Amino acid sequence: MIVLADLEWIETAEEKYLTQLSALRVDAEWNVIQATDYIVNISESLFSDENHVALGGYPYDTFLHGISEEECIRQFSSWLNEGDVIWVWAKSNQKYLRWLWEKYSESKRIVIYRVGGKVRSTKPSMFGESSPHALIKTLTGTAGKEHRACDDVDVLRKLFRIVGSHSFNDGFQNDTLRGIWDG
């Protein structure tokens, strides 16, 4: 099945710190079958800017009660089913999730495709330079809170439903077409 995923992080000069991870398992009609959402406990020193986009507008207390980065990836790994294919919007999400996976997951097999560029090239007149949030807000009047991972994955789901990307779903069922999405 397709799993739409989004993650948010704070990046310092030394490393990245995961703050949120959310995912939706969807059917061929882009209906949610199952959802999961993780808030990661971050150091108080990383909370120097309460308006940082990676915090998604959550108050700091929310992160105090979060789980560790390692536990987040382990729980996400347990939530995934055999054969799930993860779709993320941007290359940065793809690279960081793959890095986290290699660092923490006991299962080293994961399939992650970034689909933003492919969707943009398929529907360039629809997108222009718009972000998924801006486009969904224009098309539907609402898009949730940007950089809140749980809202971001729902925006992706709505976007795929609108752009009529059933052919994307069909393509992932065919191993020969998977390579066009990778990278």
Characterization of the model:
It is a single chain. With 183 residues, the chain is α/β, with parallel strands linked by helices. The protein is built from nine helices and five strands, in the order E-E-E-H-H-E-H-E-H-H-H-H-H-H. The protein has helices at 60-64, 69-79, 91-104, 116-122, 124-127, 132-140, 149-163, 166-172, 175-178, and strands spanning 2-11, 16-26, 32-39, 85-88, 112-114. Strands 3-2-1-4-5 form a five-stranded mixed beta sheet, with helices on both faces. The two termini are 20 Å apart. The model is unreliable at 166-183 (pLDDT under 50).
Put the structure in a nutshell.
The protein has helices spanning 60-64, 69-79, 91-104, 116-122, 124-127, 132-140, 149-163, 166-172, 175-178; strands at 2-11, 16-26, 32-39, 85-88, 112-114.
Contiguous low-pLDDT stretches (5 residues minimum) are: 166-183
Secondary-structure content class: alpha/beta
Number of E strands: 5
Supply Rg: 16 Å
Order of neighbouring strands in the sheet with most strands: 3-2-1-4-5
Descriptive labels:
183 residues; globular; five-stranded mixed beta sheet; single chain; disordered C terminus; 42% helix; alpha/beta
